[in-house]
Amino acid sequence: MGKRSNVLVGLDIGTTKTAAIVGEVTETGVDIIGIGTSPAKELRKGVVVNIESAVEAIKKAVEEAEHMSGCRINSAFVGIAGSHIKGQNSLGIVAIKGREVDSDDVQRAVEASKAVAIPVDREILHALAQSFIVDGQDGIRDPVGMSGVRLEAKVHIVTGAAASIQNVVKSVNRVGLDIDDIVLEQLAASEAVLSKDEKDLGVALIDIGGSNTGIAIFSEGSIKHTAILPVGGNYLTSDIAQGLRTPFNEAEKIKIKHGCALTALIPKEDVIEVPSVGGRDAREVSRQILGRIIEPRMEEILSLVSKEIVRSGFEDLLAAGIVLTGGTALLPGINDLAEKVFDMPVRKGSPIGIGGLTDVVNSPAFATGVGLIVYGSKQIAGDSFHRKTGGALNSMIKIIKKWFFEFF
Asked: pTM for this structure?
């Protein structure tokens, strides 16, 4: 088992599962060559609450991915989510003294945008360029080569709680892996499931995970707004467990096998078997009862997302509609319910434009893992949208890694 220089790894540490996906960068794009998954209960609302469990889950997923791909995994692009993540727009201004703008000027302008008031317990994860202004001329996507005396960069800044980031870094480092970068999960997922046309027209990506729902709004080819709501698929499972009086694990299985987000789509004659608690016999229940439990909770989650989109002020820019991804997006009927809530076109987002084991990862549940690899490939290629900023986060990762190996 060897290491190949053109291989990248995406590590999605989720609430319900940890997935390690191996991709090989080719001349035509990315080929998926390995995948490993492990059930996970080490996160709560996107935050690591048990490092030992997180380490075991990551280790199992990585070993499985190594075995399938035949590659040794030494580093990974790691996804991060959680209600501690916050996004805000900022403006960076630099002087260019009447000459042509070069890539260093662009980088300086982006760096200048990071001079915002951020609490000491938070770190910058991303500084994502949206557009540029040269001497008052707005809407410029790439100012390199233009002449002027003043360059302004409109930038979307994503921050996270330093302690939560540190716990993710520690968990990954204890498996013996380096971190290539830490990436906001819905940003990574957007790389796998959204087309360029959708980003240009205006689209909202909604990544519904186990305990969080991530939102990323794109328009005119750049990201405009990000947010994470502390609600997700586990809330459906909890409602099923209570409503049908069945263990949580059984409720999750029932949701996956028989769940439907729209009760009207369920035939009246459908019946499901529900395991009981305390050794009692299993019961038969109408599947429509299950639908009446799931639908209001799912509608509530989507309504919260709709309110966040309205609050962002970008709801009128979403000409391409809504794209749903994440494990909960697999729920039958969710598109119909979402179209009713958002009053705009909705589709499910599975990874597109990739090769290799497409049949294995062709699911909204693997959008983040695949997207991390696509994000990484663009970053390495020098795409300006993904260029590393070399900020405090990368320095913090190095410090934590050094501390870890000194004491352990």
From this structure: 0.89
